[in-house]
Amino acid sequence: MKILIIGSKGFIGKHAYDYFTKKNEDVYGADVSVDYANPKYFTIDSTNSDFTEIFGNHQFDVCINCSGAASVPDSLVHSLRDFTLNSLNVFKILESIKKHTPNCKLINLSSAAVYGNPKSLPIKETDALQPVSPYGFHKKFSEDILYEFHHFFGLQCCSLRIFSAYGAGLYKQIFWDLYQKTKTQKDIQLFGSGKETRDFINIIDILQSIELIIKNGSFCADAYNIANGEQISIKQIADLVLKELNYEGSLSFTGIEREGDPLYWVADIEKMKKLGYQKQISIEEGIKSYIKWAKEL
């Protein structure tokens, strides 16, 4: 199987590149940074992405789009950039696939941010999409673009609504933030109340999900929740991380919600379970592994 991973230098993209390479698939990468050592790599122009060179010269079986911006706060400040990376570039990718390699299946990484603050839990793929940030809107737009190209042109594509991803190689978000703060702060303070909940999924289980979708999934512009169906509070997560770090300081919360952040998330993952998904990494195991990686940097 010939696979293209766009955004292959990013967190999920790099792991996906290594994962499918080890599976002996024919894997190509693409990203904005230069890599002269890899003959199966394409450098993308960050200001004016054009995928003609890629799809015009290669017939891929699957394209996994891991590219795009991934910051809610930054999307509030640089909305146009976020739109360009998360919506416009998806259109350009599909337009190039349509012209040059229409049999290529596209897996586009979306986000649980498309749901916003859900009216009920767990969140199903069929629930209303009500984003509360530009980032969430732009991921929703990308899903609409997939539907457009499937409905009008018959392209095979699907969206992965990834919930709270984490794992070795992630230099941001709560795990990294806490690890960094323990180095210099005796009193750690986080946004919110600590009661907010998330549904965390380790990178190993994200890769398992992607492989299952390639093998068994539908590519009719539908969406899949990528999560574990487990609700855990931010305070619980913070306590687990700090315990693993043997942190002896205090933890408190500002009580101020960060703009664009939803309050409570937990996914319905029955759709993925029907494809064969089974969690491989518990949150406790995942935190241990993450801290071990961070300490070895």
TrEMBL record:
Q: Which InterPro entries match?
A: NAD(P)-bd_dom, NAD(P)-bd_dom_sf
Q: Which Pfam families match?
A: GDP_Man_Dehyd (PF16363)
Give the top-rank taxon of the lineage listed in the UniProt record for this protein.
Bacteria
Domain (NAD(P)-binding) ranges? 4-288
Write down what this protein is called. UDP-glucose 4-epimerase
Q: What is the protein's species of origin?
A: Cloacibacterium rupense
